[in-house]
Amino acid sequence: MADDPNEDIKAMSFEKSLEALEKIVDDLERGDVPLDQSIRIYERGEALKAHCDRLLKAAEDKVEKIRLSRDGKAAGTEPLDPE
Predict the structure, then answer these.
(1) Whole-angstrom distance, CA of residue 10 vs CA of residue 51
(2) Residue of 61, 58, 46, 65 whose CA lies nearest to 14
(3) For labelling alongside 2, which of 55, 61, 65, 71 has CA 20 to 30 A away?
(4) How far is CA 34 from the centre of its chain?
(5) DSSP structure class, residue 11
(6) In 3D, which of 44, 75, 57 has the Cα closest to residue 14?
(7) How far apart are the first and last CA of the chain?
(8) Domain ranges of the chain
(9) Is the pLDDT of residue 81 over 90?
(10) What is the pLDDT of residue 1?
(11) 38: which residues sit within 8 A by CB, 6+ positions away?
Protein backbone atom coordinates (compact mmCIF):
# COMPACT_ATOMS: atom_id res chain seq x y z
CA MET A 1 0.00 0.00 0.00
CA ALA A 2 1.41 3.40 -1.00
CA ASP A 3 1.96 6.20 1.48
CA ASP A 4 -0.75 8.85 1.70
CA PRO A 5 0.46 11.78 -0.44
CA ASN A 6 -1.42 14.14 1.88
CA GLU A 7 0.04 12.78 5.13
CA ASP A 8 2.11 15.97 5.58
CA ILE A 9 -1.06 18.04 5.87
CA LYS A 10 -1.75 16.74 9.39
CA ALA A 11 1.34 18.56 10.70
CA MET A 12 0.61 21.87 8.93
CA SER A 13 -0.47 24.98 10.77
CA PHE A 14 -3.68 26.69 9.73
CA GLU A 15 -1.73 29.45 8.02
CA LYS A 16 0.47 27.05 6.03
CA SER A 17 -2.58 24.98 5.05
CA LEU A 18 -4.47 28.05 3.88
CA GLU A 19 -1.46 29.28 1.91
CA ALA A 20 -1.15 25.89 0.16
CA LEU A 21 -4.88 25.83 -0.54
CA GLU A 22 -4.77 29.33 -2.05
CA LYS A 23 -1.94 28.27 -4.36
CA ILE A 24 -3.96 25.25 -5.52
CA VAL A 25 -6.97 27.46 -6.23
CA ASP A 26 -4.76 29.87 -8.21
CA ASP A 27 -3.24 27.00 -10.22
CA LEU A 28 -6.63 25.49 -11.02
CA GLU A 29 -8.17 28.86 -11.93
CA ARG A 30 -5.27 29.60 -14.29
CA GLY A 31 -6.25 26.47 -16.20
CA ASP A 32 -2.81 25.58 -17.52
CA VAL A 33 -2.35 22.49 -15.33
CA PRO A 34 -2.54 19.09 -17.08
CA LEU A 35 -5.68 17.09 -16.30
CA ASP A 36 -3.99 14.33 -14.28
CA GLN A 37 -2.16 16.92 -12.18
CA SER A 38 -5.39 18.95 -11.79
CA ILE A 39 -7.09 15.91 -10.28
CA ARG A 40 -4.21 15.31 -7.84
CA ILE A 41 -4.02 18.92 -6.70
CA TYR A 42 -7.81 19.14 -6.43
CA GLU A 43 -7.76 16.12 -4.11
CA ARG A 44 -4.97 17.74 -2.09
CA GLY A 45 -7.04 20.92 -1.93
CA GLU A 46 -9.96 18.93 -0.51
CA ALA A 47 -7.65 17.46 2.15
CA LEU A 48 -6.28 20.93 2.97
CA LYS A 49 -9.80 22.37 3.25
CA ALA A 50 -10.85 19.57 5.61
CA HIS A 51 -7.72 20.16 7.72
CA CYS A 52 -8.43 23.91 7.89
CA ASP A 53 -12.02 23.17 8.92
CA ARG A 54 -10.81 20.86 11.72
CA LEU A 55 -8.31 23.45 12.97
CA LEU A 56 -10.96 26.19 12.94
CA LYS A 57 -13.42 24.00 14.83
CA ALA A 58 -10.77 23.18 17.43
CA ALA A 59 -9.97 26.89 17.83
CA GLU A 60 -13.65 27.77 18.18
CA ASP A 61 -14.05 25.12 20.84
CA LYS A 62 -11.22 26.74 22.82
CA VAL A 63 -12.62 30.25 22.60
CA GLU A 64 -14.58 30.51 25.78
CA LYS A 65 -15.72 33.26 28.03
CA ILE A 66 -14.78 33.16 31.70
CA ARG A 67 -17.70 33.30 34.13
CA LEU A 68 -16.99 35.24 37.29
CA SER A 69 -18.51 34.61 40.69
CA ARG A 70 -19.99 37.43 42.76
CA ASP A 71 -16.62 38.02 44.40
CA GLY A 72 -14.91 38.38 41.00
CA LYS A 73 -13.15 35.03 40.96
CA ALA A 74 -13.22 32.72 37.98
CA ALA A 75 -16.13 30.32 38.40
CA GLY A 76 -15.80 28.38 35.17
CA THR A 77 -16.20 28.87 31.49
CA GLU A 78 -19.04 28.92 29.01
CA PRO A 79 -19.19 29.03 25.22
CA LEU A 80 -18.44 32.42 23.71
CA ASP A 81 -21.73 32.44 21.78
CA PRO A 82 -24.24 30.42 23.84
CA GLU A 83 -27.22 29.28 21.82
Answers:
(1) 7
(2) 58
(3) 55
(4) 27
(5) G
(6) 57
(7) 46
(8) 9-79
(9) no
(10) 43
(11) 28
Q: Residue 46: CA atoms inside 13 Å, Cβ hemisphere, count? A: 6
Which residue, 42, 20, 16, 21, is CA-closest to 31? 42
Is the CB of residue 42 less than 8 Å from the CB of residue 20?
Answer: no
The tens digit of pLDDT for each residue in 15-57 reads: 999 999 999 999 999 998 999 999 999 999 999 999 999 999 8
Phi/psi at 32 (5° precision): -105, 20
- Residue 68 — left, alpha, or beta (φ > 0 → left; ψ -120 to 50 → alpha)? beta
Q: Tell which residue, 59, 79, 57, 51, has the closest CA to residue 67.
A: 79
pLDDT of amino acid 60? 77
The letter for the amino acid at 53 is D
CA 24 to chain centre: 15
The residues, any chain, with a CB within 8 Å of residue 70's CB and separated by 6 or more, are none
